[in-house]
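Worked problem 6 (solution included).
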Amino acid sequence: MGGGTIIHLDKTCPDLHGLTDREAEALCGQLRKELIDTVSRTGGHLGSNLGAVEITVAIHRVFDTSRDRVVFDVGHQCYIHKMLTGRADRMDTLRTFGGLAGFPKPAESIHDAFIAGHASDSVSVAVGMARARTRMGEDYHVIALIGDGALTGGLAYEGLSDAGNSREPLIVILNDNGMSITKNVGGVAQLLARQRLKPQYLRFKKGYRKVMGVLPGGRHIYRVTHKVKTAIKGTLLPCSMFEDMGFTYLGPVDGHDVKRLTQLLQYARDLRCPVLLHVRTVKGKGYSPAERNPDRFHGVGKFCIESGEPLRPSDRDFSKAFGEAICELAEEDPRVCAISAAMVPGTGLTEFFRRYPERSFDVGIAEGHAAAMAAGMAKQGMTPVFAVYSSFLQRSYDMLVHDVGIQRLHVVFGVDRAGLVGADGETHHGVFDQAFLDTIPGMTVLCPASFRELRTMLRHAVLQCDGPVAVRYPRGGEGRYREDAGTADVVLRQGSDITLVGYGTFINVLLDTADRLAEKGISAEVVKLGRITPLQLETAAASVRRTGALLAAEESISSNSVGRRLAAGLVLQGVPVKKIALQDLGERYVPHGSVEQLRELCGLSAEDLTKRAEEVLRHA
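Solution. The predicted structure is:
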């Protein structure tokens, strides 16, 4: 291949093992250009992928990902990997229904070793794979690519500690873009780091180990010299923590030097022990708007490549409404503080952090720590509000029970991205919190359906409630319902034939369903639940007594869903009902796609619910 060769990224997987260094550099430029073009049209995670181009190309030059296991952490660094593994021609379907997922997905390709939508678990997964390989007598390499903030999560250190102690051959690539660990300082440290990464030094080190392993007394000499070297290095060089854990530490190295990265990965592969390669990268590398504003370009919608501006300005959404409301409460009550787990802009807390820096705490990707810290603050008289995505709150369950729940501490959880979220798919749908929050005694869960209602419910949660309270709201904006019923259950529409029950913004689908039923001569009563834990039965029971039939619908898994709890409560109270029907997500993990498409898939569109209501009445 000549130095100017263009690699065609089609349905096949290009073999990068024979690339020259110049060709590899050209490929990185080609990939970066195509990545920017693709994400400008599809939306997705841009900055993190731009920063990982050279790392990914180097991995594919050294390893065979159809057999070797590369575990991404988190998975939003995987776009270049997808382009190099036979999926480049489908990148325009990224994060669309039936198209490519935005995260690694083993069902999508043999090259995707493990699903990865949440952070900090890659090293734990990798050491598990390495141990399985050893126990089963197989031969392949295991690599964990961790970074972009994932090292702020405590699980990462649990994995690192065990991996280093295991002595299993594996490689951890730390993609350090300034989001995980602080910069190394000092001229001596930088000089020594450069010297110990030179190829001639690495060759000498490898040969020295080999000779000392066969010479009489060589092992003893090696151990003594190694201890002396380690002591000196620990004084002068950064990141000795990793070597204390049992890793051979390499780095830091320029993460955009594909030649050097390839050399070091080859060396790390041949060491056959736990190796940590510390790679420094620039998030958003190669696209100046993303380099200037990496947070904004972490996850983007469609945008103009020339200016970097979004093609459609963002509308006011529930996250912004939450941020406005919490600022109002902080102005009134100096005990109110805000906690984020590395999602300040995403949860609408940017303005709060600007106005009240002394009451703002971003703990990194550490949701369990955030919940436990909030419990400590509440115990000492503060009113902590932890804003967190529903799917990330899952990581705090033990702390919700043990640290918050048992002592009935007044911690408020702003549960963002509740319900189906769309393009991020299985790993990010907020469809489990309804079930697991209800298992915690003393927990209150409120479900606003409009911006006004969010403001009222959050005020109630912060200033009037005791014990733990969750206020859950969806991604995006409000629908046709824009009233404010407070925290009460209310009848939004009178009817006589069937009762439709729901909560949150899904109530808009039920109102549309009632309209469709009215066109068919069916009178539907619509009941909106304001609080789903503890569940209040009075309003729904009164409605069912009038209509004799119930259809409860929600974006939730079936297990311990609100509909199931409501149906059980009505039966236990002896409420006369001819027919009860529940429509939810079932016992499944819902894929990625638009919310509308996913509702149709799960039978939760207004059209589907209309048919279900007709079916209920036919069999009532």
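Discussion: The longest helix spans residues 21-42.
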